[in-house]
Design brief:
The protein has 21 helices and 19 strands. By secondary structure, it is an alpha/beta fold. Belongs to the peptidase M28 family. M28B subfamily.
């Protein structure tokens, strides 16, 4: 009993000490009020509601455009409506395959054998026998039928295809086998088509995701031989609907008409592409007779991997996958701000899935519903946030981050002036380990909120469980693959992505509630904890007198990133002397942001700013991230406007920090380094001047 009392005393003392520290963006007096509000909010989060929402929204497979997905949409509107959020539908007509279409895979010679394209039924798991579960499929496959020899291309990366060419292995007219991993599946297809392949089979290798990693499902949470990773293979030079780059895909029957590309003007794939499990892949690869693979290309199947199958081994691949205009709908609920309703904190997660989608995306969707209800309860008690908090549920993300991108393109002007931050929670409760990535200005926000939330089934805070050194959190940098792309990389809105993770059966038919409760979070408490964390971040952003961006972090992170880039360049260009102009600009930025970070709390405590002045200062703060927007776009694609970050155009998922420079590095270029040094210098000095202008306004008061 004494130990328990001591524990409670220690936790209480920790919170009291936190409360005594002046919060970023708040005066000392307002810090006390905000601390009390956050304590109240934590109690409002109903952990049981998370489980209920998760079971309901993942009861059936629900791909974008399906009736089942429309039912999920209606449920989202119902829950947020009951929580008294102002809820709006944003419809779009986008060009996608409405369903998997038809496909077949078979070995033709030396023996005829059709191959499995569906997960096995699991005894005791009714979800696994649902009649609407789809075969394995890749959205945006080309349609066609081919019978051909086979070639193994390792992970199907740019380097892997180059290695095949170097070894004298031609894939022209052949069916390529490539395993999942290392890059976005769409690039496996892009490079296969570029080198002349007639078809592509993408398989999950047991060495990466299967029995080599431990027990397979249903005994463990590793891929079994029939488990198939679905996913889009869309690889345009922009994100979103393939027919409306830079413009929203507004409804065809709406008042506003949007010019659309003809499908022939796009880069959509023309070859048939489909995924398979490693059981089916083994049937083909065990018959291959060519040369053994080079080092690093051997996977986990119990035989030597070969580069070619030879003329005796032929496989038939047939895919019929029509594309059409499909109505999709974003659902956005708003808790209207009491003082600054036109300043927005936006939280989002998509709701369409490849099947049940319990971890991806259902866990994030259910968490946001739980958060919506808690915020609604606060408002009912008279605690409206000062700024508006928007809860967004995006559609058609799985096809290529489409729903959120169309909304960003539709609302780009408003986002440019109103959006304080975007917080993304795709698959946000997929395990018991917290993690995240963010723009520099939001990393401290993530850290501070993590200190406020107790980690489930423990006496420690989320910060204590997440931190490796007890002093900081290992927060990464945003890459590709989810709904923050449009906000951060196209519109220049500071963004973060976070939640909990673990080992999942990603994009398979097995990602159901049975699997979730058994392997992901048996206590079903993580959803509530993530809702608390997300809510604390939202409330800090919404209620701070001055938006609590961590401005000195820009200089800290930029210094690190330019050093990393310089080291990479020197590896192929030893004479390179560095980005001297940018480094000088960063030094100036370090000085100005450090000074401002000391001036801001003093100005807040002295209460010498009226509402009009505060509104103007916050408008100035919102513009800081826009300093990195380069109107010509990046050299690999003009849609990507941010000089600070983009998704890797060669892998699709990885984070490219300083992307214009990273593009030079990826292609071992030397001639444009001085040009980009000048461009980055200009952007950093632009940011610096904005910071100085804010300081001058504060000092003049």
């Amino acid at each position: 009993m004494k130990r328990l009392l001591l524990l409670y005393f220690t936790v209480g003392l920790t919170f009291n000490l936190l409360a005594q520290s002046q919060m970023d963006g708040f005066s000392e007096n307002d810090t006390k009020k905000q601390t009390e509000l956050e304590d109240l909010f934590l109690k409002k989060v109903d952990f049981d509601n998370y489980k209920n929402h998760l079971k309901i929204i993942t009861a059936n497979p629900h791909t974008a455009g399906s009736k089942a997905n429309e039912a999920v949409r209606d449920y989202l509107m119902e829950v947020m409506g009951k929580a008294e959020l102002e809820t709006t539908l944003y419809p779009y007509d986008v060009y996608i395959p409405k369903d998997p279409g038809d496909s077949e895979i078979a070995i033709v010679t030396p023996k005829r054998k059709p191959l499995n394209q569906m997960e096995d039924i699991i005894p005791g798991n009714a979800y696994s026998s649902h009649p609407d579960l789809p075969k394995g499929w890749n959205a945006y496959s080309g349609s066609g039928e081919v019978t051909a020899e086979v070639v193994y291309a390792n992970y199907g990366t740019k380097e892997d295809y180059e290695k095949l060419a170097e070894l004298g292995i031609s894939i022209k007219g052949k069916i390529v086998l490539a395993r999942y991993g290392k890059n976005f599946r769409g690039f496996k297809a892009k490079y296969a088509e570029q080198y002349g392949a007639a078809g592509l089979l993408i398989f999950t290798d047991p060495g990466d995701y299967g029995y080599s990693k431990g027990l397979v499902y249903p005994e463990g949470n590793n891929y079994s031989e029939s488990a198939i990773q679905r996913g889009s293979v869309l690889t345009e030079s922009f994100t979103g609907d393939p027919l409306t780059p830079f413009e929203p895909a507004l409804p065809l029957d709406g008042k506003t008409k949007v010019d659309r590309l003809d499908p022939s003007e796009t880069s959509l794939h023309t070859i048939p592409i489909t995924p398979i499990g490693y059981g089916a892949a083994s049937e083909i690869m065990s018959l291959m007779k060519g040369k053994p693979v080079p080092g690093g290309w051997q996977g986990g199947l119990p035989f030597t991997y070969r580069l070619e199958g030879g003329s005796e081994l032929t496989v038939r691949l047939s895919v019929t996958q029509p594309k059409e205009f499909v109505r999709v709908n974003n659902v956005v609920g708003t808790v209207k701000g009491s003082l600054y309703p036109d300043e927005w904190i936006i939280l989002g997660c998509h709701y369409d899935a490849w099947a049940y989608g319990v971890t991806d995306p259902g866990s994030g969707t259910a968490m946001l519903l739980t958060l919506s209800e808690a915020l609604g309860e606060l408002v009912k008690d008279g605690y409206s946030p000062k700024r508006s908090i928007m809860i967004a549920h995006w559609d058609a993300e799985e096809y290529g981050v489409i729903g959120s991108t169309e909304w960003v393109e539709q609302m780009k002007k408003e986002l440019g002036t109103n959006a304080v931050a975007y917080l993304n929670f795709d698959a946000g409760v997929s395990g018991r380990s917290f993690g995240g990535a963010a723009a520099p200005s939001l990393k401290k926000l993530m850290t501070d909120a993590a200190k406020k939330v107790i980690y489930p089934d423990s006496s420690k805070t989320v910060f204590e469980m997440w931190s490796k050194d007890g002093e900081s959190l290992p927060i990464g940098n945003l890459g590709g693959g989810s709904d923050h792309i449009g906000f951060y990389m196209h519109a220049g809105v500071p963004s973060l992505s976070g939640g909990t993770g673990g080992k999942t059966l990603y994009h398979t038919n097995y990602d159901d509630f049975f699997f979730y409760e058994k392997f992901i979070d048996p206590s079903l408490k993580m959803g509530g904890a993530v809702a608390q964390w997300a809510g604390i971040m939202s409330l800090k952003l919404a209620n701070a007198t001055l938006i609590p961006y961590d401005l000195p972090r820009y200089a800290t992170d930029l210094t690190m990133h330019f050093k990393t880039s310089t080291d990479k360049i020197k590896a192929y260009y030893p004479a390179f002397t560095g980005f001297q102009k940018s480094i000088s600009a960063i030094a100036a930025l370090e000085k100005s942001t450090s000074a401002l970070s000391k001036t801001l709390p003093k100005a807040l405590n002295e209460n010498r700013l009226n509402k009009k002045e505060l509104k103007k200062l916050n408008a100035d703060l919102i513009q800081l991230e826009k300093s990195f927007l380069h109107k010509e776009g990046m050299p690999f694609g003009p849609w990507y406007l941010s000089l600070y970050a983009s998704s890797d155009p060669y892998s699709g998922y990885a984070s490219w920090i300083l992307p214009a420079i990273e593009f030079q590095i990826a292609n071992a270029k030397k001639d444009q380094l001085n040009h980009w040094d000048a461009v980055y210098e200009k952007a950093i000095l632009n940011l610096n001047q904005k910071v100085i202008a804010i300081s001058q306004k504060l000092e003049s008061r």
